[in-house]
């Protein structure tokens, strides 16, 4: 009976660390450069800043509109404001009035 002795190959010792390093390299590369990596994070932060700025502008516009609507509340109805808004939206005049329009609304929004 013959027994064959094999010499241990160095590849046999390093195959598991090589595969592990390949997996870590692959996932590490995509963690930094993938669709959710560092450049994408910077883009998302810039977009967040833009959206917060736009949100602030929309909130200011809403506050202005809410203030104008509050003037038309039946409890605090002001005849002058109602008259101005009706004339601007309906584009109507009394027979004894003369209006010179420059293409813009003649009253300032409040």
Beta percentage is under 5%
Helix count from the secondary structure assignment:
3
Count every beta strand, where a strand is a DSSP E run of 2 or more residues.
0
Helices and strands, in order, run as HHH
**What structural category arises from helix and sheet content?**
mainly alpha
The shape, in one word, is rod-shaped
Regions with little confidence, pLDDT below 50 for 5+ residues: none
Radius of gyration: 37 Å
Count of discrete domains: 1
In percent, how helical is the residue content?
Answer: 55-70%
Distance between the termini: 106 Å
The largest pleated sheet is described as:
none
Average pLDDT level: 82
What does this structure look like?
With about 110 residues, this protein is mainly α. Helix content is about 65%, strand content about 0%. The radius of gyration is 37 Å and the shape is rod-shaped.
In short:
This protein is 64% helix and 0% strand. The chain contains three helices and no strands.
Key structural traits:
mainly alpha, 110 residues
What is the strand and helix layout of this fold?
Elements: H1 10-33, H2 38-71, H3 79-90
């Amino acid at each position: 009976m013959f027994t064959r002795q094999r010499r241990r190959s160095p590849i046999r010792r390093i195959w598991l660390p090589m595969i592990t390093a390949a997996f870590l390299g692959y996932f590490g590369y995509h963690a930094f450069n993938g669709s959710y990596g560092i450049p994408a994070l910077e883009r998302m932060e810039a977009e967040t800043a833009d959206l917060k700025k736009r949100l602030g502008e929309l909130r200011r516009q809403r506050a202005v509109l809410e203030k104008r609507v509050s003037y038309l509340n039946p409890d605090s109805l002001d005849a002058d404001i109602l008259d101005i808004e009706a004339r601007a939206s309906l584009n109507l005049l009394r027979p004894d009035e003369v209006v010179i329009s420059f293409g813009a609304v003649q009253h300032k929004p409040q």
